[in-house]
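Write out structure tokens for NADP-dependent oxidoreductase.
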Amino acid sequence: MPYAAVLTGYGSPETLVWSQVTLPTPGPGQIRMRVHAAGVGPTDLKIRRGDLREVFPVPDPAVLGFEAAGTVDALGPGVTGVSPGDEVAAQLPTLGGYGEYALASAWAVKPGTVSWADAAALPASAEAAVGVLRQLGVSSGETLLVLGGAGSVGVIATQLAVAQGLTVFSATGPTDEQFVKDLGAIPVRYGSALLAQMRAHVEKVDAVFDAAGKGGLRDAVELAGGPARVITLADEHASDFGVALSEPTPDRAPDALEQTMPLLASGRLRLRAQRLLPMRDTPRRRTPSSKRARCTRSSF
């Protein structure tokens, strides 16, 4: 029987136990992959702590992981265009990435030039970045402010927006200023001086993408001339400012992985540096809680 890091209760990383689980069987339209790497994101940490227990019930067995990359192992009925042995990456809306095997209903081929770590870290962040940019309706010539522009989602959103012909301002910390400059953005500092810094460059922006959820929405609404084109991924106070909270619905950006994987393979898209941790050691390792760096479980 295969193994997975099973969530045995809410709390610290020690609630994840490396345990035997039943080998999953792919249903219609699904593939089963032998996982080589699984991305670890902020939502995984919130689920593990129990922060989302009222709105996001976990499956049984509770194997976390919204994204993974691996080798196709088996095909469900009706699956075409992929074969056992193919290397793929997938977003996993129903979880399951923290295991030796996972089921996926949508996937993209992993080019040979893309590492397993990058392939596993791309799906969820790419879906959020592409999806919110579409919801904002940004277009060439416009000005976009990205709050958390150096985080895993913000990095992708920044590069896609710059490539689309937007002027991008990136609110970030001092250690990431050169990094976001290299991505083509204009860095500004998070904090009480954000509005003043932005006004030193422009009087207003066309849209704001809050990729971090760590404050700044009041200034964002003022800069955008209202909340209509301000969207946050995670700020719990969004409704206080009339700001929309974007959630990962199936129709937000189902093609995001297909769109961004070729960019990653060609070097036209960069990700944050990866931290690789052995999957079987998940209970003994503390996962970074910051969105600045992605963590990838790998190397069974």
